[in-house]
Design goal:
The complex is a heterodimer. In chain A, strand 4, helix 3 and strand 5 form a beta-alpha-beta unit. In chain A, helix 2 packs across helix 5 and helix 12 crosses helix 14. Chain A is about 35% helix and about 15% strand. In chain A, the strands form five sheets. Chain A has a five-stranded parallel beta sheet. In chain A, strands 17-16-15-18-19 form a five-stranded parallel beta sheet. In chain A, strands 11-10-9-12 form a four-stranded parallel beta sheet. Chain B is of the alpha/beta class. In chain B, strand 2, helix 3 and strand 3 form a beta-alpha-beta unit. The radius of gyration of chain B is 20 Å and the shape is globular. The chains are: A alpha/beta, B alpha/beta. The complex binds iron/sulfur cluster (SF4). Iron/sulfur cluster binds next to loops of chain A.
Chain lengths: ~475, ~220
């Protein structure tokens, strides 16, 4: 038997048909849906008269457009409301399970899948959303698809795919205290670049990954797409199995034992070869802050905004200059001198209970600085919110001056009412700092939850380790 | 899906790397439940000086005269020439829908983001990958020779123009076929229904927990 990577194993076990040029039909085990990328797919089904191939693999939840306040009154924006209502109607018409806005299980689709046990090792998982890479943390082949493909999966339970190349990112040693998975993935993107993973499925491995919790592993895989890779992967271990055990959609009884036995195979063979391998040392990673309009434009919190004049490549130099102009920053500015006006703790990258606990630890017995206009905490799901409240985190945040909201995508992409005003600067735990992402002309700095909390209480970016020591 | 065989069009040079899907079509326009009508909002934040919202009459909005698509010499361009990693970011198919609705049928770049690249083929847009140096050459000419048109022949896999030596390009046979014939992917896949059923039968034995009903 040749030695196989985890990706090879997942690919082989889902291959239905392969054409001569390598284009293949692969079977899809789980299809997650949300309101933004599905309406045209359902419309397509209606027009062509196709029925869903299977209904039980689909799970839908509205997340992008939902308000994070006053949910009893429904959605004020009529266009957003129509989109959310359309999802509900489509799910009803086609017999698909949906967690509606008032369901306590509602939340960001990539938080909800793992939380419900809808995300299982060994699965192929797709969703009309690029951050579907998140689910790769469970040893599943998970990636984002377009709306035509959403329709294709609904109608055929398969996708047309070419096999990706494989990349191994091995991260040795361990992160230092106060440095998180978010810092690690931002650092890795800074190293390989936002197109570094283009065409690849990236497997994350090494001691620094093995010691991470499942929630932190999800943060890592979530941002694989920000390195250009459609899919991120992490091998199955005890933590994976423990996390899934007892979840509503997890297998039960003797099926559970069989499932776990098969999941234990879901790791790259020791002598498997990857198309590309990069090694890093976790101990070298410091808390990270992005300074530009792409996730690769990132430095350590102790660093400075770089000077485009030192960039030899003309294209990159122009990109840096444009980013600095957009961000309203001068080269050489100390990151610690940058003052955000808003703070957003949320998104499918960082809105799980562990993220909220890490932020709350910094915020406890402190106050949001008077220069901060708004500090938001948006839990990833209704269930995360409930657990946080049971732990008293809502009080910690509210006493410090944060707003405590209902779950959804919120200011990660500002499709609902939560958004930046032009030229406002935000410390955000989300995953994209693209122009206009958090609001027209808004300026986003990506950071970890603890770093966002630290910026909120200090009124400027600050190395969170300084607050942990005191 | 629209077929793509041989196409001649005016080239517009968009000289930026890493053009992301939020730039191609900002999120406020994703609230639509239709596939059409996105063209007026393509590159909205760059094309107009004000903030766009769905439903706005774009003919009344202040235009950014510096943005290349707004320059008179590039009006009615239908081939977009751009830099590496075009279409990075989200999976939103609204990005190719907006490009198509505006009138683009082909995009030439040194590289594309994976999901975007794939989405183009589903919508009859041909993404052409060329070497960085060749793309730079095309940029020079598009700037100097105003109104220059290119002809893209998918069958022959060539690009020709009045000031151009013939340029060849690579493309997957499957992608090529589907564009040439305007194939309906779903109908084609359903021809394999039997195979899919057989796969399911085997898989159900191996991994029965994947075939349970959700709560
Ligand atoms: S939280 Fe942000 S990145 Fe995640 S699914 Fe929602 S909009 Fe996309």
């Amino acid at each position: 038997m040749p030695a196989l990577t985890l990706y090879d194993k997942l690919w082989d076990s889902h291959l239905v048909h392969q054409k001569d040029d390598g284009m293949s039909l692969i079977y899809i085990d789980r299809h997650l849906l949300h309101e933004v990328t599905s309406p045209q797919a359902f419309e397509g089904l209606r027009l062509s008269g196709h029925q869903p191939w299977r209904t039980d693999t689909n799970l839908a939840v509205p997340d992008h457009n939902v308000p994070t306040t006053n949910r009893e009154n429904g959605i004020a924006d009529p266009i957003s409301r129509l989109q959310v209502d359309t999802l509900e109607q489509n799910c009803r018409d086609f017999g698909i399970t949906q967690f509606a806005m008032d369901d306590p299980r509602q939340g960001i689709v990539h938080i909800v899948g793992p939380e419900q046990g809808a995300t299982l090792p060994g699965m192929t998982i797709v969703c009309g959303d690029s951050h579907t890479s998140t689910h790769g943390a469970f040893g599943a082949l998970a990636f984002g698809i377009g709306t035509s493909e959403v329709e294709h999966v609904l109608a055929t339970q398969c996708l047309l795919q070419k096999k990706m190349k494989t990349m191994l990112l091995r991260v040795n040693s361990r992160l230092g205290p106060g440095v998180t998975a978010k810092d690690m993935i931002l650092y890795l993107i800074g190293q390989i670049g936002i197109a570094g993973g283009s065409g690849y499925a990236i497997e994350f491995a090494g001691e620094a990954i093995e010691v991470l919790s499942m929630e932190s592993r999800m943060t890592i895989c979530n941002m694989a797409i920000e390195a250009g890779a459609r899919a991120g992967l992490i091998a199955v271990d005890e933590k994976t199995v423990d996390y899934i055990s007892g979840r509503p959609l997890a297998p039960k009884g003797t099926l559970w034992d069989r499932a776990v036995a098969s999941w234990r195979e879901l790791r790259s063979d020791p002598d498997a070869t990857f198309d590309t391998v990069h090694e890093f040392n976790a101990i070298a990673i410091e808390p990270q802050v992005t300074w530009g309009t792409s996730p690769e434009m990132v430095v350590s919190v102790e660093g400075r905004v770089p000077d485009p004049a030192h960039e030899p490549d003309a294209g990159r130099r122009a990109g840096m200059e444009r980013a600095l102009a957009y961000m309203g920053l001068e080269p050489g500015t100390a990151i610690a001198d940058i003052k955000p006006e808003r703070v957003f703790i949320g998104s499918c990258t960082n809105s799980r209970i562990e993220d909220l606990m890490a932020a709350a630890e910094i915020v406890r017995d402190r106050r949001v600085a008077s220069s901060i206009k708004q500090a938001l905490v948006v839990p990833g799901s209704g269930l995360v919110k409930r657990e946080a409240e049971a732990r008293g985190l809502d009080k910690v945040f509210k006493e410090a001056g944060f707003e405590w909201r209902e779950s959804g995508c919120s200011m990660c992409l500002a499709m609902n009412a939560d958004r930046l005003d032009p030229e406002e600067r935000c410390a955000s735990t989300s995953n994209r700092n693209f122009e206009g992402r958090q609001g027209h002309k808004g300026r986003t700095h990506l950071v970890s939850p603890a770093m966002a909390a630290a910026a909120a209480v200090a009124g400027h970016f600050i190395d969170v380790r300084r607050l942990l020591d005191s | 899906m629209k077929k793509f065989k041989k196409f001649t069009g005016l080239v517009v040079p968009l000289d930026r790397v890493n053009v992301d899907t939020d730039a191609i079509i900002p999120k406020q326009f994703l609230k639509s439940i239709k596939r059409t009508g996105f063209g007026a909002y393509l590159f909205d934040e760059w094309r107009y000086l004000d903030h766009g919202e769905p439903g706005m009459d774009c003919t009344q909005r202040p235009i950014n005269p510096d943005f290349v698509l707004n320059r008179p010499e590039y009006r009615n361009a239908s081939i977009l020439l751009t830099r590496s990693n075009f279409g990075c970011g989200s999976s939103r198919e609204h990005a190719p829908w907006a490009l198509l609705d505006y009138g683009f049928r082909a995009i030439i770049a040194p590289s594309f983001a994976d999901i975007f690249y794939n989405n183009c083929f589903k919508n009859g847009i041909l993404p052409v990958i060329l070497d960085e140096a060749v793309v730079s050459g095309l940029f020079r000419k598009a700037r100097v020779v105003l109104g220059s048109k290119l002809t893209i022949d998918l069958k022959a896999q060539t690009i020709t123009g009045p000031h151009e030596n013939m340029i060849g390009f690579d493309i997957d046979p499957s992608h090529k076929q589907s564009l040439l014939q305007g194939l309906d992917d779903i109908a084609a896949t359903l021809m394999h229904s039997k195979q899919i059923r057989m796969y399911e039968e085997d898989r159900r034995k191996e991994a029965p927990w994947l075939f349970g009903e959700p709560a």
